Model the fold of this input.
Amino acid sequence: MTETTIPEPATARRPGISRRGLLVAVPVGGLAVACAADDPLLGDQAVGGASSATGGAAIAVAGSDPADSVIPTLTPLAQLPAADDDEVHVTYAPAVPPAITRTGARVIDVDLEVLETVCPLDPANGVTTLMWGFRIAGDDVACGTPGPTIRGRVGDIMRLTMTNLTGNQHPHNIDLHAVTGQGGGAEGLTAGPGESKTIEARLLYPGAFMYHCAFGDVPEHIARGMYGMIIVDPEEPLPAVDHEWGIVQSEWYVGEPDDAGLADFDRDALFAEEPRYVTFNGRTDALDGDNSLRMAVGERARIYFVNEGLNLASNFHAIGSHWDVVWPEAATHPANRVIRGSQSTLVVAGGGTVCELVGQVPSTILLVDHALVRTFYKGAIGKVVVEGAEDPEIFSEGVSDVGTAPVAPPPGQDATGADPVETNEVTMPSGAWDPANAATAYTPSVIVVDAGTIVTWRNEDSVVHTVTSGRSDGSVGTPDGLFDSGNIERPNTFTVTFSEPGEYDYYCVPHPWMKGRVIVR
Done:
């Protein structure tokens, strides 16, 4: 944490100065406000203006600069221990390995085998096709599309071995979008039938990433099913949820099935980018019927979703519900902002997203690509069955006496009407981003200090927050320009020196239901 203050009267400065690391003072409504213009997220922006203290309050603003890179400090290879034997790193979708909550990086081992087998594509209509894919080494799984879901932690070294089984007809490899290295590891993993290859790769960024074969005719290898997902947990794990699932969307470029139901690869359809099937988890029934996902009313589920392509963007939508939380592009680093209450989220080919559902009422939620031809005619559908008690406060069928109650009186005190506490320290605790915790998002939400006091805010939440002066109605905030922390990452702090008596409201820009007040005596 760094702290800067402006003496009263403040020294005039030349306007229009653009220089990093420079303390600039700007007059705002009779207050002298100081800020350090060395935030790498701001860049070399022109800031300045003359500052004059004309009897107004002097507010000094200070905050910690975020790191120039979001890559964590790496533990040297020679100092890395192996992950515990009971730590699971591979599963088959829709299951995902448990979240990695340990502190510190490890070496994780992942062993995959390549399969080339005829597998069900549209079981209801008896359609099969030749799929190329991956399985966990040593398993007796016959079909490898999608490949196993891999999970590690940012900073880990992943030692990945790929074995191209004897009896296969083609060379293969793996390009992992989570890997920094030649071809995402593809060059080092290229193996002919009967060969095994190994790479060791550092996981530098958290998120959900695609992996796929990148040998030879790459589009054909992907179109035949050679893909999967790798989840990289951030250093600070995402909040715990009741369920985590993995879903991949993909396209199948096949022709009319023959009398036996076998549909061959159709190169003309591939060139035209017109798939016959679009599926979740490799087949039309992967998330339907007995394979439907299940949760209870009141539970929260997180979906790691990757669009394997090959060509189409996905319009991922939950019919009958909403994405309560979305990490766009599946970029789960805490510096990135989440979206709340989204209806559909766009996922580019070769990209991902992380979405959360809340089981609000009993129903069957339909997971679809809202380019609905793909859902109704080509197979891109999944089901989440929500079980539990009805809640007419949220949904009911038919007519009730809703609308006959008298108009409610004005609501009681919000967070900024809470009893004031004498302190100069405010915390943004874990879970402050959740609207259900609005009353304690700034703890305490109302404080009382004497003039001249330095007030410190500390972020202990897993996502970034701001301390921005102004008013918020809980949905939209209006800054008044007196002070603004910019993004504060955990565990950084931000300070303001209050020199003039008065009441100063503030809120969080990305989470406007977070509100607080400083009362200066």
In short: The longest strand covers residues 107-122. The longest helix spans residues 218-223. Residues 318 and 367 are 5 Å apart (CA to CA).
